[in-house]
Amino acid sequence: MKKIVGILLLSILLTSFTGCSYGSPQTHTGQAVSVSTNIETVVAERKSAMTDENKAASNTIKEMAVKNSSDKDKGEAKARETKPLDGLTVCIDPGHGILTKKVKKTEPLAPGSKVMKAATASGTTGVVTKVTEESLNLTVSLKLKKALADKGANVIMVRETHTCNMTNVERTDFWNKSGADLTIRIHANGSESKKASGVLMMVPGDKYIKDKDMLLKSAKAGEYIMEGVLKNTKAKSAGTVKSTDLTGFNWSKIPVMLLEMGFMTNPEEDRLLNSDSYQNKIVTGITEGVEKYNSYINSGKKK
After folding, report:
1. Distance of CA 38 to the CA centre of its chain
2. Is the domain of 174 the same as that of 277?
3. Whole-model pTM?
4. Residues 254 and 183: beta-carbon distance below 8 Å
């Protein structure tokens, strides 16, 4: 009996040790799995973070590209902005000029006319400033050139220096062939009376010119420019004259007008005409008139 009990106790002890020997490896294996799982989690999280960073960088690049594209479009749109005088070509004729060679003394007043007139003229001189008319005309004309060009006009100049050897017919032939839509002749007036004053507008009469459209457009240009000059300078108006005795009108094939800015033989007007601020007012007035004229001829084209 004691022998049987001993055998049973030995069996129980062996079973207990065997259970322990299998339990330990299972515990270590569980720890290995846990470590492996942690590494995979870290790697996955890092990959996710990198993906988010890449997405953020990509979005930033896209945003920059969109902004640059938008800025470029705005720049191009600004460059394409229309100006009031786009498509209009204006010829500016600064009256007179210094001759450096001999030219014809006389020429026909109009095509086919037997009436002869002086081919050139020297102009007047400031009674106070002693500035010559040709110089004043050029100064104002160059300012006008810039003002019209800034508004989008294509500007052609008969002269840009003090010298000019063209006769009146040659000047007119120049702007007839230039492709200009309108010619603006810039002059200053003179009189034996020092009291004579005011802005005078001259436009072509119909004695020699039979082109009614040209006459109408010349009159409209003169009207609008006169309005602009008087408004900006507050000067006295000497009126508007339809002239038939100007060679530069009678030979012209395109709309043309002549602005006498004031009397250089009048002490007060001579000082004004030769001041920078007053010249700017004249130029502003002419430019406003040309804008109005351009709107007028464009409205006629749409009809």
Report:
1. 69
2. yes
3. 0.75
4. yes
Residues 277 and 181 both lie in one domain: yes
Six-digit token string for 99:
């001759």
pLDDT in tens, 48-106: 655 666 666 666 666 766 666 666 666 665 556 899 999 999 999 999 999 999 999 99
Co-location of 18 and 102 in the same domain: no
Buried/exposed code over 73-97 (b: 16+ C-beta within 10 A; e: otherwise): eeeeeeeeeeebbeebbbbbbbbbb
Tokens of 84: 């009031």
H or E stretch at 72: helix 2-79
Which of 260, 261, 255 is CA-nearest to residue 294? 255
**What distance in Å separates the CA atoms of residue 165 and residue 100, rounded to the nearest whole number?**
7
Residues 94 and 70 in one domain: no
Give the pair of three-digit tokens for residue 41: 């989690």
What total of structural domains would you count in the chain?
2
**Ramachandran area for residue 87 (φ above 0: left; ψ -120 to 50: alpha; else beta):** left
End-of-domain residue from the set 54, 81, 108: 81
Tell me how far apart the terminal alpha carbons of the chain are, to the nearest angstrom: 136
For residue 295 the two structure tokens come to 């709107």
DSSP-based three-state secondary structure for 116? strand
Between the alpha carbon of residue 57 and those of residues 9, 53, 71, 298, 303, the distances in Å are 73, 6, 21, 53, 57
Which strand (E) or helix (H) includes residue 140?
Answer: helix 133-150
Residue 27 predicted with pLDDT over 70: no
The answer to whether 294 touches 85, Cβ cutoff 8 Å, is yes
